[in-house]
Amino acid sequence: MKALIQRVRSARVDVAGETVGKIDGGILVLLGLDKGDDKATVERMLDKVLAYRLFADAQGRMNCSVTDINGGVLLVSQFTLSAGTRKGLRPGFSSAMPPVEAEQLYDFTLQRLRQRHARVAAGAFGADMQVSLCNDGPVTFMLEL
């Protein structure tokens, strides 16, 4: 499982010209699901995502999490994060979780995220999405389990 997290001032996801998810300050989470990921993997990733310190404290150091600042979380599925890119000039997706399984695990991830954090929005699994964001910093981290 991979989660590319970006500290944002704002972010939104549009599908077919309609906004389906939007946050103000917080984090955009692009989530890639790999073969072998399961509910236990989801719980470990959410522990990390919600506690990861990427917001400034009073001294200007990155010591606060999205939970600490009560920021928004925008979750977007992105299977291309599971691509193999070491060889050649074309990505391979043999390590990506198959779509039916991935959708079920993504839905579980979103459900658990909403149970654990108050301000959550999401993209639409498998849709052609347009993601707009104002990356704050820029601050971006790749979390992998």
Automatic annotation (TrEMBL):
Keywords: Cytoplasm, Hydrolase, RNA-binding, tRNA-binding. It catalyses: glycyl-tRNA(Ala) + H2O = tRNA(Ala) + glycine + H(+); a D-aminoacyl-tRNA + H2O = a tRNA + a D-alpha-amino acid + H(+). Coiled coil: none annotated. GO terms for cellular component: cytoplasm. It comes from the Bacteria. Pfam families: Tyr_Deacylase. Its EC number is 3.1.1.96, 3.1.1.-. It is found in: Cytoplasm. GO terms for molecular function: D-tyrosyl-tRNA(Tyr) deacylase activity; Gly-tRNA(Ala) deacylase activity; Ser(Gly)-tRNA(Ala) hydrolase activity; tRNA binding. InterPro entries: Daa-tRNA_deacyls_DTD, DTD-like_sf. Signal peptide: none annotated. A motif (Gly-cisPro motif, important for rejection of L-amino acids) lies at residues 137-138. One of its GO terms (biological process) is D-amino acid catabolic process. An aminoacyl-tRNA editing enzyme that deacylates mischarged D-aminoacyl-tRNAs. Also deacylates mischarged glycyl-tRNA(Ala), protecting cells against glycine mischarging by AlaRS. Acts via tRNA-based rather than protein-based catalysis; rejects L-amino acids rather than detecting D-amino acids in the active site. By recycling D-aminoacyl-tRNA to D-amino acids and free tRNA molecules, this enzyme counteracts the toxicity associated with the formation of D-aminoacyl-tRNA entities in vivo and helps enforce protein L-homochirality. Homodimer. A Gly-cisPro motif from one monomer fits into the active site of the other monomer to allow specific chiral rejection of L-amino acids. Belongs to the DTD family. This is D-aminoacyl-tRNA deacylase. The gene is dtd.
